[in-house]
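Write out the 3D structure for:
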Amino acid sequence: MLDYNTQLKKLELPEYGRNIQRMVDYCTQIENREERTRCAYAIIATMGNLFPHLRDIDDFKHKLWDHLAIMSDFKLDIDYPYEVLKPDNLYTRPKSIPYKLTPIKYRHYGKLLEDMMKKISSFPEDSQERKQLLSLLANNMKKTLYNSTKEIVEDERILKDIKEYIGDVVGDITVEDLKLRSIKELQAKKTNNNNNRNNRHNKK
């Protein structure tokens, strides 16, 4: 009579398969400690053969012994060559990492662009660097806004958003000063950048 998997004991680590689990179950029932230990090492060797591509990974053997302990339901009484997992540590959750939430004026533009906008005030008002940076950010805003809405982006909208970011610092700037490109040009530039990156990678 065939045994269906749905009728059998649930596998703790299915990636090792039913036969390895049976070997582990048999090993835990061996009364002689020395013989039980030899059996455990044989099982580890078999487990390792299932994943030869992992042999060069640090602590690979240690992980195997951890897995053996888990599959034995921590009932395998041997002298492990490593400090293996304890049942209490198996399902412990990692400590939560505090995430500092800061308000963002326009979430679709992101925090980085907002920070870059603040740096504009550090440049002299009539400097070429300031004009170039403002034009670069404005074009990035236009492309980002289009990608998030898939709607036509009016240049006046970009100028309005810039003024909301930096207010009086922007001065009497006009749409013409921003040197905004069309969406088609911005998308084409992105494609060209990707092609150039791929060409450099292929040459390597």
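Residues 128-149 form the longest helix (22 residues).
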